[in-house]
Design a protein that fits this description.
binds beta-D-fucopyranose, 15 helices
Length: 448
């Protein structure tokens, strides 16, 4: 394969991404309180391979080695999330200093290694105590709890961490947690609940941004959304309408709230009585100015009219092509197009690709290496397209491959590997895959 030979402007962040529950393990150590993912993964039948995150990648003990590995890759940034219940075991109240210390030490080690820490405050693992108190995100008062959590963490880390994302994928956490029940807290309450949870998440985002702004001098603050390019499956007006509704519900619901003053009216009408209660001041709070948008992207969405997620009434279609182990289509141009879509339609001053990657079954070769050609090809092409979007004017400031290590892939357990570093879960041995060495090659184009 010809080398990529891409150059990146000064300051461009190239790294890998992870999330606390997916890698840390040590769920009952040093005062950590349980999260909804502990409860959910220990509920029989919820995780495909019957596993949980009790041990995961044991990153809580092996983080020094993991930082060394990232250094070896030559990347200059690392996106990770903080476990709320490690810092505040009951979600609010007493701070667990040992929990904060863990992240503080990690940040120091990253900075020593020349790696910029990029923190996500919330990546799906709500403290169980807050779920038990009025249903987690269903209770509007949780906004104050999140703000206090953001304050506790940023007071401690804000002198060294400058990149902060409030939430990872609000749509997923609301719909998969409160409608389909496939993720924690595993509820199937319906649209009203998901929309209420989602609205409270967005209010919490705005409140936390204000707090972070106070605590982090020179901070770059934002949020991470899962955005896919949406295409109708055919020329029929029905499919076009379904694709339009899907784009409204997944992409524009959040983008319009953040950048255009409110939820899209067309979608609010469609939700009818399920639409969230928006009281005066809410939309101003959600629109608290942010510096960047994080885009998670893995595939495109080809959509036909159907019966899924009423009133969206859609059905995903899988056109012929290559698919990952998740059943997600490999379509690198989709990343380029969604970045252009963001830039064309919204006043976003800085964009990061905060996640992009592929799950494939890996085999350790007799030479001990992991020749993950399909992941290498996936990442190469996506990086190439992201770079193209940047060279055409999209203010792309960084790219993070999902994921640093193979890890606990939520409801799929350990059965799906996304890492650029292989983890042998029996021994916790780490091995850099060929896809990791691809990132090393890309890192040669950094100008820092
Ligand atoms: C994203 C999640 C991330 C990981 C990837 C595969 O939706 O943010 O934690 O599960 O999907």
């Amino acid at each position: 394969m010809e080398p990529l030979n891409l150059t990146f402007p000064k300051g461009f962040l190239l790294g890998t991404a992870s999330a606390s529950y997916q890698i840390e393990g040590a769920v009952a150590e040093d005062g950590r309180g349980p999260s909804i993912w502990d409860t959910f993964s220990h509920t029989p039948g919820k995780i495909e391979d019957g596993t949980n995150g009790d041990m995961a990648c044991d990153h809580y003990h092996r983080w020094r080695e993991d930082v060394e590995l990232m250094k070896k890759l030559g990347v200059n940034a690392y996106r990770f999330s903080i476990s709320w219940s490690r810092v505040l075991p009951r979600g609010r109240g007493r701070i667990n200093n040992k929990g904060l210390q863990f992240y503080s030490d990690l940040v120091d080690a990253l900075l020593d290694a020349g790696i910029t820490p990029f923190v996500t405050l919330y990546h799906f693992d709500l403290p169980q105590a807050l779920q038990d108190d009025g249903g987690g995100w269903l209770r509007r008062g949780i906004v104050d709890d999140f703000e206090a959590y953001a304050d506790a963490v940023s007071v401690e880390l804000g002198d060294r961490v400058k990149h902060w994302a409030t939430f990872n994928e609000p749509w997923e956490l609301a719909w998969q947690g409160y409608v389909t029940g496939e993720d924690a807290p595993g509820l199937k309450l319906g649209n009203e609940a998901a929309l209420r949870a989602s609205h409270n998440v967005m209010l919490a985002h705005g409140a936390a941004i204000r707090t972070l702004r106070d605590n982090v001098s020179g901070g770059e603050l934002g949020i991470v959304l899962h955005l896919n390019m949406v295409e109708p499956a055919s020329d029929s007006p029905e499919d076009a309408a379904a694709a339009h509704r899907w784009e409204l519900c997944q992409n524009r619901w959040y983008m319009d709230a953040l950048y255009r003053g409110g939820y899209p009216a067309e979608m609010t009408r469609l939700y009818g009585r399920d639409a969230p209660e928006v009281i005066p001041g809410d939309m101003e709070q959600i629109q608290e100015p942010i510096d960047f948008l994080g885009v998670n992207n893995y595939r495109r969405s080809v959509v036909a009219a159907g019966t899924d997620l009423p009133p969206v009434n859609m059905r995903r279609v899988s056109p012929p092509g290559e698919y990952t182990e998740m059943g997600w289509e490999v379509h690198p141009e989709g990343l380029y197009r969604i970045l252009k879509w963001v830039h064309t339609n919204y006043p976003v001053p800085r964009v990061y690709v905060t996640e992009n990657g592929a799950s494939f079954t890996d085999t350790v070769s007799p030479d001990g290496k992991i020749h993950d050609e399909r992941r290498v090809a996936y990442l190469r092409e996506h990086i190439r397209y992201a770079h193209r979007a940047m060279s055409e004017g999209v203010p792309l400031k960084g790219y993070f491959a999902w994921s640093t290590l193979d890890n606990f892939e939520w409801a799929y357990g350990y059965s799906r590997r996304f890492g650029v570093i292989h983890v042998d879960y029996e021994t916790q041995k780490r091995t850099i895959k060929d896809s990791g060495y691809l990132l090393s090659e890309v890192a040669k184009g950094l100008r820092n």
